[in-house]
Amino acid sequence: MNNLCVRCRFKLEERCKQRINGYDDIMELSWFKMENSGQNSLKYRFLIISSLIFVLPVLILFYLFYRSDVVFDFLHLLIFTFILLLILAGMMALRFIFDRVFHVADSLKKANESGKAISTNLNKDVTELDDILVSFNYLLQKFDKAAEQATQRTLELSALKDIGEIAVSKTDVDELLLAFLDKALSMTKAQKGSMFVIEPDNESLRLIGSRGIEHLEKGARIKISETLLKHAISEKKPLLVQNIENDPRFQKKNDPKYGAASFLSLPISMGRGDITAVLNLSNKKTGEVFDVNDENALSVMEVEIRFTLENALLQAKLEEYIKNIEERNARLEKEIAIRIQAEEAQQKLHEELVEAEKRAALGTCAAGIAHEVKNPLAIIIQGVEYLKSTAGSDTTLLDVTERVKRAALRADNIIKGLLSFTRQTPIQAEDVEITPLFEETLSFVEHQIKSKHIRINRQYAPDLPNVRVDSNQIKQVFVNLLLNSVEAMQDGGIITISAETTRDEQDKRCLQVSIADTGCGIPESKIEKVFDPFYTTKDTPGNSGLGLSVTKGIIDKHHGRIQIESEADKGTRVIVSLPADNAR
Amino acid sequence: MEEANKLLKKKILLIDDEEDFCFLVKLNLEKTGKYNVLTTTSGSKGIILAEKEQPDLILLDIIMPELSGGQVAEQLLESPKTKDIPVLFVTAIASRREVQSQEGIIGGRQFIAKPVTPEEIMAKINRMLEHGK
What we know:
Chain A contains 13 helices and 13 strands. With about 575 residues, chain A is α+β, with helices and mostly antiparallel strands. In chain A, a hairpin with a 5-residue loop joins strand 1 and strand 2. The two termini of chain A are about 100 Å apart. In chain A, about 25% of the residues are buried. Chain B is an alpha/beta fold and about 130 residues long. In chain B, helix 3 (about 45-55) packs parallel to helix 4. The longest helix of chain B has 13 residues, at about 20-30. The model of chain B has no long low-confidence stretch (mean pLDDT about 85). The chains are: A alpha+beta (about 575), B alpha/beta (about 130). The interface between A and B is medium-sized, with 23 and 22 residues.
């Protein structure tokens, strides 16, 4: 700025001098011209030139026309007029130029007459101009200073803006500190710089990054007490050293590794004011020393850095906290899911235990009852048979004995169902092809199906897998289900038997068999109870209410599933799924 | 003549603690004229009777208060006098279906399930007598 100011001042002075000298030159020239030629001679010469320009071409033209015997028709006249107009235009232009020349000449003449007065005024002007120049120089200096301050402020504001942007883009503390280091380097024009953090022991510094310093490696540790930075750390304020060799605080020989002898350190604090990092700058590009402006700029930066670092730390803590909470939530959700699963498994196990105990108790009870009931039944049957053999032609007696026998057999049937339900008959498993088994079962109930005019619709999928089951027990299941369907269709209908391969909830292969009828269906309120022992929806005599209980017991023993879908007056569909992966 | 008929008739020993059952089976079987039925409600008495009377076949209940049918069968097998007499168990503890599904043989023994008709008893007896044990 100083240079600019000096240059400006020099140019201004030169220009003033030129202005004064220019007046002198013009005056001298004017005098010379006025004396040698004069205004009148100029006008005379102008007239001659004008005449020659105008008259000569006209005369030449006329002569040419005359010599060539040209007859003036309209076209020739037009050309002639055009030429004349051009000549007139040239004349007018020439006249304009000469008028300007005459005007200048007049002015010079007048200037010559008042030449002395102008010279006096010019000297006065020069004096005034010199005063103005001094004032202007002073103003320029002020302006220079203000501009310098403005530049500094601009740099600071730019640094703050950049720091703000860095703060937004980076959340890692080390990355932030290094970004600040780069910014400080560019702002102060330093070529070397480093950023240290204070170790938790408060006795050593750890380098997190450096610029332009070869011998320092990231992670290097130095003792605080062994470095000049201890001053900045202990005093908690920037350390500005303009020349370390002359500085009375140090009087130490400069280490050329860090460049010039001037350096600047800035302690960076956080939280309660504890110093957490130290920024060091050295070796300015311009070869200048660090000054108060640099220190002030860095101090302004430090305030912003502090807030940014605190924000970053808070952000990091918050993120870690959120992460911890999310992890804890995930763990809790997992634990809850496991607990729910365990509780469900426990509940299921408990239910199964209760069921097993109930069944065992019922089994024991049923076996005893069966034995006690079967003996009297056996006696009744034997007695009835004897009476029948002795009744002869007594039809009434025969009828009575037949009824008694039927009742006894019905009682036996109930006992038989009860025993089947409660008895844990072991499975004699074998690999079975399901469709022949089904066809065999259908033959057992063929008579009932035909007598009720029921049509059988078979829908067997191809390539059905074998199942490992106790074929006798599974036959009993199908017989029970088919007889239920037959009994539900008093007026005939269709029984659809389908078999297909499916997958269960654990994605294991299953063979699914369903028996669907178009019978009377089961009311919704009763569906849940159909598997309960002694529960029946049929009002026909002889139903023990154990058929579906026995069926479910058999399917359970085979690790299969049985489901019932039914709609009153529309029909019932029973779906039996059997594991198909265990067949050999 | 009566003695001759008696010789032609098959001698059946029924051991069952149900006295009424014994009475009625005896009645039904003997009525056909093909069987001579001895009955007892005690297992131990049944063994003595078997040794003494040498029946063609023994109908034996399983669940009995003093000696069970199984124990009686064991003793009969141990005795040289009775070991060759075929035994048909008449039981109320197995269902008719179970017995039928096993074709009347459970653990190598012949079974018939209560309640049983006289025809069923006689058919089984005849089959056993035709095929020996």
